[in-house]
Amino acid sequence: MHSSVLLVILLISILPMMNAAEWLTNTHNPKFPGKCTISPNMILNEGVSVKDPNHKCRQIICGHNGMTIVQNCGVSALSRPCRYGDYKNIMLPYPKCCVRHIICK
After folding, report:
1. Domain boundaries along the sequence of the chain
2. What stretch or stretches form a coiled coil here (predicted)?
3. Model confidence pTM above 0.85
């Protein structure tokens, strides 16, 4: 009984930090068939995922025929007077890098 209550409390406290956002974009380039052309310097094979070099904590996944999935940490709100600070460790892989400092005044 006590362990079930603790588990529920733990899940409730963690859920706000688990927000994520995901969108699709077409990065097909006829010069590189079957690949995702993220930039002139970043061309990915289908099935490859990389951390976005232009963002602190975002993942890029190359899908079929240039369809790209971009995943980031999403947005969530905290009750006042608290707010999110910077990411705790941007060196961690996505989504572990999404954990942020919480600042309360």
Report:
1. 2-104
2. none
3. no
